[in-house]
Amino acid sequence: MKKSTKIIIAVAVIVAIVGIIFGVSNIHRHKYIDEVIAPTCTENGYTRHTCECGNTYTDNETEPLGHKYVDEVVAPTCTEKGYTKHTCEVCGDTYTDSETEPLGHKYIDEVVAPTCTEKGYTKHTCEICDDIYTDNETEPLGHKYVNEVIAPTYTEKGYTKHTCEVCGDTYTDNETQPKPKPQPNNNNQGGEALPGTFRKNPTTGELESYLPGLGWVVATQGTDTTHHNDNSGWENSPQIGH
Ligand SMILES: [Zn+2]
Ligand SMILES: [Zn+2]
Ligand SMILES: [Zn+2]
Ligand SMILES: [Zn+2]
Question: How far, in Å, is the centroid of ligand 2 from the Cα of 94?
């Protein structure tokens, strides 16, 4: 063996020994921190061991707990199915089963008669859910008016009053003008006045009486004025009759 070869081998051995010594002195011993993961309804529980070097492993598995369902029976309605609803009180998972058919509406019928102006109909009301629909419409009856003719007076117009004998609705039409006031007789107008009536002459202010064939003449002393009222007898003359 050459001398140089011996030297190389010797160096290699030294390097190897030094490396082994160095390596052994730095051997990493895992220090695990344990974390217990609780089981859920559907997942296993376990313990996870984690070293700060990143190395992990798990053990101590436990079975899933399984859901803890609380059952709620939902009754059917007129239009919706009934069912039983199962809700896990732990995780909130739900499912339904045990469906039942809808009940269907139970209608009570009420016949609403037509009025003078409104249609009649049949009203169907579900006694369970209060759903309502109507059908069987009938036409309004129309008013049944009774007519009353109101004659005009001297001051009020006349008219015809129509009153529905069913609903009391009223309206009026056929207005007529007030009756013309009877005019007092005087010389200017040449009308007829009743004998024995008096007036105050519109021009002179003198008291006058009406005499058949003569017309209005100034009342003289002794003239019968018993029918005279407050110097305006001409206004009342139609009512003062003889
Ligand atoms: Zn480690
Ligand atoms: Zn659950
Ligand atoms: Zn209903
Ligand atoms: Zn009516």
Answer: 8
